[in-house]
Write a structure and sequence with these properties.
This protein is an alpha/beta fold. It contains 17 helices and 24 strands. The chain folds into three domains: about 5-250, Aminohydrolase, N-terminal nucleophile (Ntn) domain (Glutamine Phosphoribosylpyrophosphate, subunit 1, domain 1, 4-Layer Sandwich), CATH 3.60.20; about 260-465, Glucose-6-phosphate isomerase like protein, domain 1 (Rossmann fold); about 470-620, 3-Layer(aba) Sandwich (Rossmann fold). The chain is about 35% helix and about 20% strand. Bound molecules: 5-amino-5-deoxy-1-O-phosphono-D-mannitol. One of its GO terms (cellular component) is cytosol.
């Protein structure tokens, strides 16, 4: 979603801004812009230069390359449209009525309509349809007042004006502001939207996410809610919402692979699919090593006392992360015997179930910045805290790929899936990492509750340890098969995915992958539901993908698939090879494995199938239209 990158120092910043924004491209956006303060006039009066363009960053970089806007301070933005069409007019930065103040913003200002009306009454004309534009105007008015009251045109005057304006805004946002009369100042603030400060050598940064800082600095400090900072070429002053200076030690970016390259792959998504055996191996090495101390089923960072207290689990997540949660819920209930429910985070917040005692709330988010998931978790914490009853204590666990994210910081217990940065908007290897974490939790709860025999626990662990090799074989085999058949589906308009039991979430995930990158409408159903309505859609133009894995629902899924075939649907199987395979027009074979672990494998052909259809159609696989990697607005 929107990305902010801003810098202040002693060198020219326009190309640095483009560099930083490029590292935020993976978040998804539809226009981009920068503003710098050109301070080269002899009289020291700065001039704001704004350059914006619709579409990809390359358009902006082509626009400015003839004549780079000058300035040692600048703010940059990639916009994912919420209020107003994705065009140049609505792209950020936005200027105030005097043309002296420029602002970029992420998030949504909820009371912008009321504020715009009162600004219009004061004669202020708006040049965009955005909620953002009220901010520079409000700051402009406040600064006019400060100057009239004799305050000098400097960074602290800007800081004070921004502080005041923020008290009038409702919503969640991160902003960066510059003022042509204070070219040595950059003011940034955050309210429930991610923003990190970067400490370089003689230059300072702020960005929506840490990958943007790579190559500039490894020292960073995430802003907390309601915090505001004044950046100058000499350093950073951080203030809390009470106006007091804050002193917190910055952290050091971990990992070297923060900004991955595509290597020889055509797209990041394909590379990330190929990285799954490694993701699985690393997860196993950390959490399920061969040399586990005796009596331990898994090495997750979760205390025994927590596990012992928990009677039920609720999982809050969105999109693919919710599908991982659904696989988890199946395992936790059916294998470990813990009642578990999965919620759309976006629904949970406004329709939570009655408080249940001794409940573990698990937030799942690869980015750790999904606004719906964070808001649901915060709401749950608040209502459990205010119940003031030890039975309703907020027992919490996060599963994320970004421990440095808001989710990672806000939750007490976190499983870091450490899948390595995922650039493709379509989640693949992080889905695997999330599912594996639920397998780990299942082993933990099953052994503590003595729900399963030690042999069953050992069998599941043993099967999990075989996964990396099986994944590697599957990827190799199905990459070429899906490439071969992709052309058959280029004109397809609708696809139905069927699965049952533990593979029902995989049917949903297969459909989501296909929709998001190939723009083909797809729907996942529990196979038994087909005859209750969706079957009316079937004919020779609507292919059906059926996940049929030997186990308790195998025969049932095969019968449901036959029903589809009888309606002339082209049948694509994700199944083991056997006499039954004949019914499938196309078959992605998977090895004969225990049904428990089958989702770790059945998802792979579906990822490749979607990928090759989208690639064959020549679509932007890594950054599909309208989508964002981190969905930071509700
Ligand atoms: O970062 P999160 O895991 O919280 O993201 C949740 C969804 O937005 C995400 O899974 C989305 O559905 C992906 N694009 C799926 O590929």
């Amino acid at each position: 979603m929107c990305g902010i990158f801003a810098v202040i120092g002693s060198r020219e910043v326009s190309s640095l801004l483009i560099d930083g924004l490029r590292k935020l491209e993976y978040r998804g956006y539809d226009s981009a812009g920068i503003a710098t303060i050109d301070n080269s006039n002899k009289d020291n009066s700065g001039q704001i230069n704004v350059k914006k363009s619709k579409g990809k960053l390359i358009n902006l970089s082509n626009l400015i390359k003839q004549k780079l806007p000058k300035g040692h301070v600048g703010i940059g933005h990639t916009r994912w449209a919420t209020h107003g069409k994705p065009n140049e007019r609505n792209a950020h930065p936005h200027l105030d009525f005097s043309g002296q103040i420029a602002v970029v913003q992420n998030g949504i200002i909820e009371n912008y309509r009321d504020i715009s009306k009162s600004l219009a009454i004061k004669g202020i004309k708006f040049t965009s349809e955005t909620d953002t534009e009220i901010i520079p105007h409000l700051i402009g008015l406040e600064i006019e007042q400060s100057l009239a009251n004799g305050f000098p045109p400097n960074g602290h005057t800007l800081l004070k004006a921004v502080q005041k304006v923020l008290t009038w805004l409702e919503g969640t946002y991160a902003i960066a502001v510059i003022w042509s009369k204070a070219p040595n100042a950059l003011v940034v603030a955050s309210e429930q939207a991610p923003l990190v400060l970067g400490f370089g050598e003689g230059e300072f940064f702020c960005a929506s996410d840490t990958p943007a800082l790579v190559g500039f600095t490894r020292t960073f400090l995430p802003l907390r809610d309601h915090e505001i900072a004044l950046l100058t070429p000499l350093g950073i002053e951080l203030y809390g919402d009470d106006g007091n200076r804050q002193h917190r030690a910055p952290s050091l970016l971990q990992g070297t692979e923060f900004f991955a390259d595509k290597k020889d792959f055509r797209h990041f998504m394909l590379k990330e699919i190929y990285e799954q055996p490694e993701t699985a191996q690393q997860w196993l090495d950390r959490f399920l090593p061969m040399d586990l101390p005796s009596g331990n089923s898994v090495a997750l960072p979760i205390s025994t006392s927590l596990v012992e207290r928990i009677e039920q689990i609720q999982i809050l997540a969105c999109g693919t992360s919710r599908h991982a949660g659904m696989v988890g819920a199946y395992l936790l209930e059916q294998f470990a015997g813990v009642p578990t429910k999965v919620y759309f985070a976006s629904e949970f917040r406004y329709a939570p179930p009655p408080l249940s005692p001794n409940t573990l709330t698990i937030g799942v988010s690869q980015s750790g910045e999904t606004a719906d998931t964070l808001a649901a978790l915060r709401m749950e914490k608040e209502r459990r805290d205010s119940a003031d009853d030890p039975n309703f204590y907020f027992h919490q666990l996060g599963i994320t790929n970004r421990v440095d994210s808001s989710l990672g910081r806000e939750l007490e217990n976190v499983i870091d899936i450490e899948s390595g940065i995922e650039i493709g908007v379509a989640a693949t290897k992080t889905f695997l990492g999330q599912m594996l974490s639920f397998y780990g939790l299942t082993l933990l709860f099953a052994s503590h509750r003595q729900k399963r025999s030690s042999q069953e626990i050992l069998d599941l662990s043993h099967d999990l340890r075989l996964i990396p090799k099986q994944l590697a074989d599957l990827i190799k085999k199905h990459d070429s098969l899906s490439q071969e058949i992709a052309h058959l589906f280029v004109d397809t308009k609708d696809v139905i995915f069927l699965g049952r039991g533990i593979n029902y979430p995989i049917a949903l995930e297969g459909a989501l992958k296909l929709k998001e990158i190939s723009y083909i409408h797809a729907q996942g159903y529990p196979a038994g539901e087909l005859k209750h309505g969706p079957i009316a859609l079937l004919d020779q133009h609507v292919p059906v993908v059926s996940i049929a894995v030997p186990g308790i629902v195998y025969e049932k899924v095969l019968s449901n698939s036959q029903e589809a075939k009888a309606r002339d649907a082209r049948l694509i199987g994700v199944s083991t090879y056997g006499p039954e395979s004949e019914m499938f027009d196309e078959l992605f074979t998977i090895p004969k494995v225990s049904e428990w672990i089958s989702p770790l494998l059945t998802v792979v052909p579906l990822q490749l199938f979607s990928y090759h259809i989208a690639a064959h159609k020549g679509l932007d696989v890594d950054q599909p239209r309208n989508l964002a990697k981190s969905v930071t607005v509700e």
